[in-house]
Each structure stands twice: as structure tokens, then as C-alpha cells.
Amino acid sequence: MTQGPSQNLIPLTQLSLNEMLGGALNSLRRMPKTMLGIGLFAAFVIELSSLFVSALIIRGGGDLSSPELPEPTGTFSQEQLQELLNALIPSIQAAAFAAVVLFFVQLISTTLFTHVIGNAITGRKINANEAWQKSKPQLFRVFMISLLGVILPITSLVLGFAIGIGLGASIPGSFGLFITFTGLGIGLFGAIYLWTALYVCVPTLILEDSKVLISLKRSFALSKSMMLRVFGIGLVGVIASQALSIVVATPFTLFASVGNLENPNTTSVFFNSLGSIFGYTVMLPFMAAFTVFLYTDLRIRKENLANQLNQAKN
Questions:
Q1: What is the spatial distance between Cα 187 and Cα 190, in angstroms, rounded to a whole number?
Q2: Helix/strand/coil (H/E/C) assignment for every residue in the chain
Q3: Are the beta carbons of 135 and 53 closer than 8 angstroms?
Q4: Rounded CA gap, 212 and 161, in Å?
Q5: Which single residue of 18, 149, 243, 302 has CA 20 to 30 Å from 269?
Q6: How far apart are CA 115 and CA 118, in angstroms?
Q7: Contact 67, 88 (CB under 8 A)
Q8: At residue 15, what are phi and psi to the nearest 5 degrees?
Q9: Angle CA(304)–CA(309)–CA(313) in degrees, nearest 5?
Q10: Distance between CA 95 and CA 238 in Å, rounded?
Q11: Segment 28-40, tens digit of pLDDT
């Protein structure tokens, strides 16, 4: 059941970077049962799926160990390159499967976290079941907008690379090289711009319960004229979430490196898996909360959301 009001996670005013980071950490500390519970379940699904597909690949004769690189005697021969690619195929398959699982698990967990944090901002707490009931009707739209958030920047990057290399290859000399790098630069700039403009599209859709295209336009509108700020804060959020995950996972990784000397098939796998699980457990809710706080800050700055939040609190 929904609980009564409590102290806010963040001040209901324009937020600084420190307040966003502190609010994300406070969300884990003040709502551990909900935030870490959802995170732990999501982490188990991610890690068990990874272990399952790795076992299938190994059982099918694949080798997930890092291939030995040829001696650096100059250039790769065609045969050496083919051997290297063949050795990398099992690892690429496992990584691709893990990426797909992570995408879907993060999509669902982010929707849950966003509802939990959106209510907690005004001092109301909801549990995982209430968050799930709110999330179910939105999951397909969240899937679509999350997919667009990945595809659009990648498309910009690929187009810039393709155009730059295509035009540069047809023009001899230094000018052709200049055209190539110009195309690469434009593609990279477009990818960064789209990533920044779409940074808050997911919380926009979830908390405003809007359509996909409307949420995309809203995200662009909220980020407009604050692109550098959104890019910088968003980048810090990604780095901070990864750093938090590494800090939590490091003790288990160290145990795994010790166990690897004695029994790499059991001890090291066990501790590496534990480290990965606990890393995801804190990283997923931290990143979701941080993104919601950035979205809230943008609305406070552009739409005076603070008044509405204070009214909702009271």
C-alpha cells in the first residue's frame, strides 16, 4: 500500500549535480526494500541469462576464452585474420545475447524505478507491486522509445562514417582525407546531439504517460538551450553509475582472481557472478533515479514544476 509522506529525496527547487547524485544515493538508502529488491531481481535475470547462454555455447563446442593474438611481425595474413575472427565468434554471440537481455531487463526495471522515484519526490512511497501495476500499460511504449533512443544516435554515427569514407575515398590527396574526417566528425556530433536530446525521453513518457512521438518532442524541448548542461550531467551520471558498480563488484572480483588459480570452473565463476549481480543491483536503480532527477530539474527550470510538486506534497 502507498505510505504516507516522508522527507523528500531532493529539494523541490532547481537542482545541482551534487543534489542529483546525492538524491540517487538517498533513494537506495531510504527505499532499500523496493529499489534494491527490484535491482537484485533484475541482476539475477541478467546474470543467469548470461551464464545460461555461455553454458550453451561451451556445450556446443565454442570457446569463450580470449584468443591468442599472432606475433606483431607486421601485418596479419588472411589466414591469421580468419582464425582470429573464428575464435571471436563465440564471444561475440555471448556478448550480443547479453546486450539484448540487458536492454529488456533494464527497460522493465527502469519503468518500475521511475514510478517509485516519481512518487518519492513528493514524499510518497509505493511498493514494487504498485509500481508494476502502473508500468504494465506503458511497457510497449517504453520499449519503442528506448529502441529509438539507441537506434537514432547509432544511425547518425553510421551515416556520418559511411558518407565521410565514401566521399573521401573518391577524392585523392589531403582534401579527400579532410572530407573523410569531416564526415566522421559530423556523424559523431549528430550521435552526441541525439543522445543528449533524448536523454530524458524515457522518464518523460513514463511520468507524463504520453505517446512515443510526443515524449520524443518533449525530451527535445526540455533539453533545448541546455544541451551542454544535459550532456555534461548525463555523462557524469553514466560514469558515476559505472563507478558505483565497479566499487561494489571489486571485492568479489578479487576473490574470483584468487579462486581462478585453484578452480577456475567453480570458485572464480561464482565470485564473478556475485560481483556482477551486486554491481547491477546498485547500478540500475541509481541510474534510473539520477535520470528522473535530471528530468525533474529540467522541468523546474523550464516549466516551474516546483509549484506543482509542492502542491502535490501538501
A1: 5
A2: CCECCCCCCCCCCCCCHHHHHHHHHHHHHHCHHHHHHHHHHHHHHHHHHHHHHHHHHHHCCCCCCCCCCCCCCCCCCHHHHHHHHHHHHHHHHHHHHHHHHHHHHHHHHHHHHHHHHHHHCCCCECCHHHHHHHHHHHHHHHHHHHHHHHHHHHHHHHHHHHHHHHHHHHCCHHHHHHHHHHHHHHHHHHHHHHHHHCCCHHHHHHHHCCCHHHHHHHHHHHHCCCHHHHHHHHHHHHHHHHHHHHHHHHHHHHHHHHHHCCCCCCHHHHHHHHHHHHHHHHHHHHHHHHHHHHHHHHHHHHHCHHHHHHHHHC
A3: no
A4: 28
A5: 243
A6: 5
A7: yes
A8: -100, 145
A9: 155
A10: 20
A11: 999 999 999 999 9
Q: Residue 211 is placed in which grid cell?
A: 505517446
Q: Are 212 and 148 in contact (CB under 8 A)?
A: yes
Which stretch, 79-88, 166-175, 295-304, has highest mean pLDDT? 295-304
Q: Could you state, in order of their start, the residue ranges of all structural domains in the chain?
A: 25-67+79-313
| Type of residue found at 139 | L
Selected residue with higher pLDDT from 181 and 213: 213
pLDDT of residue 12 exceeding 80, the answer is yes
Amino acid identity, position 230: V
Cell triple for 48: 543467469
pLDDT at 133 over 90: yes
Instruction: Take residue 132 and report the three cell numbers written for it.
Output: 508494476
Q: Give pairs for 213-217: CB < 8 Å, separation 24+.
A: 215/141, 215/145, 216/145, 216/148
Over the chain, what is the mean pLDDT? 86
